[in-house]
Design brief:
Length: 302
Amino acid sequence: MSYRLLTHVVARMPKAGLLVGDQVHPLPKKYPSVLAALQDWSRASREFATLAKKLAGRKGVAIKKTKLAAPILYPGNIYCAGANYTDHVAEMERAQGRTPGPNMKELGEKPWHFVKSSASAIVGPGAAVKLPAYARSVDWEIELAAVIGRKAKDVTVERALDCVAGYTIANDLSARDAMRRAKNPPGSPFHYDWVSQKCFDGACPLGPWIVPAAGIREPGNLGLKLWINGELMQDSNTGRMIFDTAEQIAMLSSRVTLQPGDLILTGTPAGVGMGRGRFLQPGDQLKLWIENVGELEHSIAA
């Protein structure tokens, strides 16, 4: 029996839960949070699979009556792949007046990631994200997020997906007009401002839940779409990644030890605002969908 791992709000307090069918049930008391379950994932995943079978058909709290929070309220590190979809790279090259050429993988490069802040950036389904006061060009980026469930150091590409507990949806919001420090020359290593661009409060809407990796056989072949106010903006497939999820995990684990509860945002496809010269406005309503994962909705505060 399939299940989803989530965090919901009960009497204003976050509680970890298991979604079986359309009913939400509490996790066993030894797992007070989703992060606690991830830190014991080898045992917890087996226990949850058995529990889901027992809970099938039983009444819990209907998902439609449940207020969801981000599935992991306080993840560990958040690693984000940059320029990792063929269609997005071509779009960004054209937006900057350049002709698309060979991608980084074709040139023999390795996956590349930046780090996004955790507790201050993470918000859940239904959140109204306040645009940062210093930016006027905040962009959207739908991403498949891999949730690490086992400590990983120097793993091979072939074993990398064994470290994934499951998958969720992320919106890597980006303040495009805060990405450069104008008075620092482009050749300087201090020219780019990654904190201002990627780490403002609410910059990482996440959810609605975590789908266990066992329920997603082909993370490299998932449709993904993003709408703003009902208008389709991004419509692509994870098969367009330049470096797939396993390659990203292997590369990251060669540099740092990945920990249970870490997130890897695997990149975004074409259709972002920068390629259109259009950016998020107060009151905008966003819906993100990834095949076999679900839908995440949030808004921009009016």
